[in-house]
Design goal:
The chain has 5 helices and 4 strands, in the order E-H-E-H-E-E-H-H-H. By secondary structure, it is of the alpha+beta class.
Length: about 100
């Protein structure tokens, strides 16, 4: 499963929605509270200052809107390692047949 990190604040509605989505999928994440100091987040997120900032396997995906878009596109589960991308499975299935 992927490593997920969320830079957030306690009162951020979008942060809460992101965490609820991960919780619903059974995905563990590390939360970094940036309520008092966002400097490390800003540096890591290429200057983005809004919360949440979400990283999956060290890849910055942006905020909750970006996370929700990945979910709508059906791409999030594969990024999280919940399902395979289908490429290896298709080859493996053909070899077994």
């Amino acid at each position: 499963m992927a490593t997920v990190e969320i830079y957030s604040t306690m009162t951020c509605p979008s942060c809460i929605r992101a965490k609820r989505l991960f919780d619903a999928k059974g995905v563990e994440y590390t939360e970094v509270d940036v309520s008092f100091d966002r400097s490390a987040m800003i540096e890591r997120a290429d200057g983005r200052m809004t919360v949440p900032q979400i990283f999956i396997d060290d890849e910055g995906i942006g905020g909750f809107d970006d996370l929700a878009a990945l979910e709508r596109q059906g791409r999030l589960d594969a990024m999280l390692g919940l399902i395979s991308d289908g490429v290896d499975d298709a080859a493996g299935g053909a070899a077994e047949a």
